[in-house]
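Lecture 7, part 2: worked example. A protein chain together with 2-acetamido-2-deoxy-beta-D-glucopyranose.
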Amino acid sequence: MARTALYGSKEVDPLLVLQTKVMILFYGTVTIVLVLGIPAAALLSNAAEKVKYTLDLAAVEGMDVAAATTAGGGGSTVISPAFNLTLRVENPRTFRPWCLDRGDVVVSYSGVALAWGRVPGFCVQKRSTAKLTVVPWGKNVHLSQELRERFVSELQEGTAKVYVEMKLHYYANFCMTAFSPSTGMVGISQELTLGGRDE
Ligand SMILES: *[C@@H]1O[C@H](CO)[C@@H](O)[C@H](O)[C@H]1NC(C)=O
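Predicted complex, written out as structure tokens:
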């Protein structure tokens, strides 16, 4: 009991009290920033994920498979196609533009690459839509007899489809780089029907 009385009567160092208060204030602030900052960062990255990509086929060249030359021996068909693609990028983000660095595009039919090319980098302003034309092409691509026959019949039925795959890199699209990745890759893939307009 004597001990308690001793401690109770001890003088409190005002500097220590101030130090403790400052510490509490500091850690309190850090906690509040973390508690509010992490959901805010998550919200920003969620908004980034809502950026919408749409691919359209504006024109096709060199896919006149029926009239294409046949390479000797295996009976494979040789084509040099080009696909005029329109990429639409819709950025719903309220505060930030959405920028993509350059990337690559490949157009394939039934697993066979027909055309490929580079995609230039571009930015979409906040709350707007940007359009980009890319024309991947291929030279002397061989199609097996089986694929050629399948393609010709699908074209007649109007069901011929090519698969477009784009890989685009991005960087510094977030303002809170401490919480979200500032670089990454966007994969855009879509099946496009060749409407039989083979010009
Ligand atoms: C792609 O198609 C669009 C629309 O038909 C046309 O304006 C543009 O010139 C074409 N681009 C190329 C490189 O063929």
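The chain has one domain: 51-193. The mean pLDDT is 84. Keep this in mind for problem set question 3.
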